[in-house]
Amino acid sequence: MMQIVDSHNQKNSLFNAMNRFIGAVNNMDQTVMVPSLLRDVPLEQEDEKEVNSPHNGDMYGSYVLLKSIRTDIEWGVLQADERRKDKHGVTTATLDVARVEPDDENLEKLFRFHLNGLHTVLAKLTRKANTLTNRYKQEIGIGGCGN
């Protein structure tokens, strides 16, 4: 009985959520043979409105963003990298997040809040990578909407 509960909890672990996202991006990366074909292809279709935010631009921008997030998960984010270049090559300061030191009583609540947030974001990003892969297949005419 204990193994069933552990197995269910592992399915919902952060590690597995990250692996699902990385797998979806790897699949997207292997499927998209010519990323430049994604330029100027609009993101939104009727079933994609929740997954995509309006400021992402075209599918190429999403492709690059998803690969960048995968790299950050796999290799970490350099703390010394205080500046990044946006899609136009302009150097911009990264968000300067206020460093709040929570007291020990709130650490568990804070951890659970951020863990839940990570799960939510990773699930949406995974759907976005899968959607992009399927849309690419439709654009070049090699497949249906299946995974």
TrEMBL record:
GO terms for biological process: regulation of lipid biosynthetic process. Its main location: cytoplasm. It holds the Pfam family Spot_14. Keywords: Cytoplasm, Nucleus. GO terms for cellular component: cytosol; nucleus. Coiled coil: none annotated. It is found in: Cytoplasm; Nucleus. Transmembrane segments: none annotated. Belongs to the SPOT14 family. This is Mid1-interacting protein 1-B.
